[in-house]
Amino acid sequence: MIPSIKRLITIESVVTDAGLRIIKGKALCPFHHDTVPSMTFKYDRFKCWSCGAGGDIIDFTERFYGLDKKAAIEMLAGRAGISTVRPSSEVERQRRDREKREQLLKEFRAWEQKRVNLISAVLCFHRQVLAGELLSEADFIALAEVTCIIPEIEWEYDILCTKDDDMKLELYGEAIRNGRGSI
Prior knowledge:
Layout: H1 2-8, H2 11-17, E1 26-27, E2 39-42, E3 45-48, E4 54-55, H3 57-65, H4 69-80, H5 88-130, H6 137-147, H7 150-162, H8 165-177
Antiparallel strand pairs: 1-2, 2-3, 3-4
Helix pairs in contact: 3-4, 5-6, 5-7
């Protein structure tokens, strides 16, 4: 909706409708006591070189009329003849999408925590065996099974403990595809 508003309404028309006079691309700034035109306009933006105010038509409308962003957008949309009312089916679809994302994120966070705990336990066990703290025959058999995958486990642990959510989600997607999503 915002790009449509910006295509249909120019910054100059918004400023003129607010009662300001634009002469040679400049106007008195309404945001401070201005005696010499210090506000300029370029493309779809304004800038006051005296007080630093600047932005697009939404920012101007917000600041000039004392509105929040949503009210400014609605005001400009009304002026441009754009309806801000979304069909109820669209609202319902967005609600379902949001709930689905929240559920997926909840499942991912649970998987992430379980996976970190499991990997941490495996790495701790591996270090104990290597340090000679655990020396039973069962420990050595378990160590032999784990040793070949330690680099992969350490790599996964590094991602889960130090990387951003995008990398973690990629790892989670791979785990789901490989049937490891439940652990």
